[in-house]
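Q: Here's a chain of 356 amino acids. Please give me its 3D structure as C-alpha cells.
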Amino acid sequence: MEKRVPELDYVRVISMLAIITLHVTGAYIFSASSLNLAGMNPAFILNQLSRFAVPAFIVLSGVSLGLGKQRETAGKFYSGRLLKIGIPYLVWYNIYLFYGVYRGTMKIPQGVLGYLSGFLTGNTAPHLYFTVVIFQLYILYPLLKRLLKEYRILTLAVCFLISLVFQCGIYLNAGFGMRFFPEFIKPYVWLLFPTWIFYFALGAAVTKEKLLKISERGRGILPLLIILTAVLGFFYAFMSKMDRTFELSIKPQLFIYVPLAFVTFLALGSYFKRFEVLDKAVLFLSRRSLTVYFLHVLILNIYIQYGWFRAGMAGMLRLLISVALLSIAGAFVIDAVVSGLSRLFPKRKRPQPAVK
C-alpha cells in the first residue's frame, strides 16, 4: 500500500502558505485601504482567515505519527523526533538570536539559565513556540497512542475538555480581562500542551481508511464545504474585530473552524491530485514546509524594512509574494545542502546475525 496520502500534502501546503500570510499581514491589519468589508481591510480579513494554520499543523503532526510506524520503540521514536525537529529548532533558535542581537532588538542571554529559559519558550522569534508545543506533544505521544487505542472516544473527549478549558481561559482573559489562570503561569499558558492537545489527539486518532473516506466524501460536496469555510472564516474575522482578539490563534471558535477548514482542504486535495503537474508541485512544497516555516520570518524581517513594501495593501501583496517565493527558494537550497551533507555521513547498518 502506498504510504503517501496526497490529500495531506495539500492541507500541509495550504497551511504553510497561510502561516506566511498570517505573519506578513500582521503589520497591515490597520492600514488605510479603499477596500473594506464590515470595517475590515483585506489584510485584516486574510490575517484572521489564516488563523486555522497553527492548529492545522498540530493536527497534521498527530496524523503523521498516527499513520507512521506502528511498532517503533519509544527510544527510536524520541531519537527520530529529536533529529527531525530538535536539531533544526536549535539551529534556527540561534540564527534568530544572533539576528536579533545584530539588529539591536535582543540582548545576549545572561548565562546558561538565561539561554535555557529563552530556548524553552522559543522567544527569539514569534513562530518558534510551535516547536516547543510540538515537543511536549511528542513526549506524550506514546501514552496518548495507547489511550487512543483502548479508549478512543473517551480520550478524545477528555482532550477536548482540557483544551476547551485552557483556550476559553486564554480567550476570556484577552478579550474580556477575566482572570482565569494564576499570574505565575499566565504568560506561558499559550505554549503549554493542554492548550493544544485536542488538535494533536484528533490527528493521531484518524486512521488512513477514515482519512481517505473523509476526503472522498468531502470531494462530493466540495462547493458546499468551500462556502461554509468562507462564511465561518468571515464570521470568525468579524468576531475578532468586535472583541479585539485579532492577535490570538487560541479561541474556542477555532474548534469548529479548524476541522471544517481541514476537511475542505482534504477534499480539495482529493479533487486536484489527479492533475499530475500540480500534484508534483504540491509534493515538492510539502517536503519543504518545515524549512519554509523556520525561514520565512527571517526573510520577512529583512524585507519589511524597505519602503517598497510599506505602501498599504499593494505593499502587503508585494511583501507576501516576495516572502513566499524567497522562503520556498531558500528552503530548497537549505534542504539540498542538508541532504548533501547527510550523504557524506551515511548511517551504519547493524550487522545481521549469522544464520546457523
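Q: Can you summarize the key feature?
A: The first helix runs from residue 6 to 25.
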